[in-house]
Design brief:
Elements: E1 2-3, E2 14-15, H1 22-25, H2 32-43, H3 46-51, E3 60-65, E4 71-77, E5 81-82, E6 85-87, E7 92-99, E8 101-107, E9 118-120, E10 126-132, E11 136-139, E12 145-148, E13 156-163, E14 169-175, E15 178-185, H4 187-190
């Protein structure tokens, strides 16, 4: 299974997505529920989903206009690709599978945010979610996960939104129950 950067490049073109509801276009920061509603409505836009160019070997993406100043992406996943273990630091987020099926492996434990390189995880922290088309989820700050297209034949497409726009990404390696911080990326690293 190939693993690529957990994020597309912020320099990708910006495409209008599903219109924001009035409560999301101005005012307070979008909530996790509002981000999930946005990705759900955007994933239902079949014209937008069908417009994403798909590459047989690497992930493709288009940046979208997210609600309330959020960062949003439409991402294509070739068979056998994934993000690797990572978190979105101080951002909350949501994602939904628009076509195909994705798997999310996540940790049901809040990790310390700084000051560590290696952690031994307890046996009961792993969660696995199968997310076929139309299913998604929201998550809070410091949510550690990996997202995979485990299909050997079919692309998957998903919609993602984060607020605030991603300040940093922490990437991890994992062997058994040992999680190791490998790299911290900031937006400057993605350009």
């Amino acid at each position: 299974m190939s693993v690529s950067s957990p994020l597309p490049s912020p320099a990708a073109p910006v495409v209008p997505a599903a219109p924001a509801t009035p409560s999301m276009s101005h005012g307070p920061a979008p909530t996790q529920a509002e981000l999930l509603d946005f990705v759900r409505r955007t994933a239902a836009d079949t014209e937008l989903i069908d417009s994403l160019p798909l590459d047989p070997e690497g992930r493709t993406w288009v940046r979208l206009e997210g609600p309330g100043g959020s960062e949003a992406w439409l991402i294509g996943w070739p068979p056998g690709t994934g993000t690797g273990w990572h978190d979105h630091a101080d951002s909350v987020g949501a994602f939904l599978t628009a076509s195909g099926e994705l798997t999310e492996n996540s940790l049901a434990a809040r990790l310390p945010t700084d000051g560590w390189r290696t952690l031994e995880l307890s046996e009961d922290v792993d969660r696995v979610r199968c997310l076929p088309a139309g299913r998604g989820r929201s998550f809070g700050r410091h949510h550690v996960h990996e997202v995979l297209n485990e299909s050997t034949e079919r692309h998957a497409i998903s919609v993602h939104a984060y607020y605030p726009p991603l300040p940093r990404i922490r990437r991890y390696s994992r062997v058994g129950q040992v999680l190791r911080l490998e790299q911290v990326e900031s937006p400057e690293d993605w350009q």
